[in-house]
Amino acid sequence: MIVLTKRNHEKFLVNHLQIECIERIPESKITMMNHDYYLVRESVEEIIDKIAAYNAKVQDIHRVVSVTDKR
User: Fold this and answer.
1) Which residue from 57, 62, 71, 49 is spatially nearest to 4, judged by alpha carbons?
2) Is the whole-model pTM more than 0.85?
3) In Å, how far are 32, 45, 57 from 29, measured between CA atoms?
4) Residue 67 pLDDT > 80
5) Residue 50, SS3 per DSSP
6) What are the angstrom distances between the C-alpha of 59 and each of 15, 40, 50, 53, 62?
7) Fewer CB within 10 Å, N or C, the chain?
8) CA gap 67, 49 in Å, rounded
9) Per-residue pLDDT tens for 43-60?
10) DSSP H helical segments within the chain, as ranges?
């Protein structure tokens, strides 16, 4: 779930797996799979970044990778 902000500054959670599409109209309009929609203050890029960060957190992609030269 990601946290987004409605136009009235109210924060709410969205299940990103239920998002059907995101439009820029000029605010961001998120249409869900059940055809409900939300107008939010975040840009399309910010929403995508939030989804990517959430997926990385869930999948534990933030592991530290170190490369060593064994010569």
Assistant:
1) 49
2) no
3) 10, 13, 25
4) no
5) helix
6) 16, 26, 14, 10, 8
7) C
8) 27
9) 999 999 999 999 888 887
10) 44-59
Residue 56: predicted pLDDT: 85
CA proximity to 42, closest of 26, 58, 54, 53:
26
Q: How far apart are the first and last CA of the chain?
A: 45
The residues, ordered by sequence, that sit 6+ positions from 2 with a Cβ below 8 Å of its Cβ are: 13, 14, 16, 47, 50, 51, 54
Whether the pLDDT of residue 68 is over 80: the answer is no
Place of tokens 């995508």: 48
The residues near 24 (Cβ < 8 Å, ≥ 6 apart) are 43, 44
Structural tokens at position 57: 């957190």
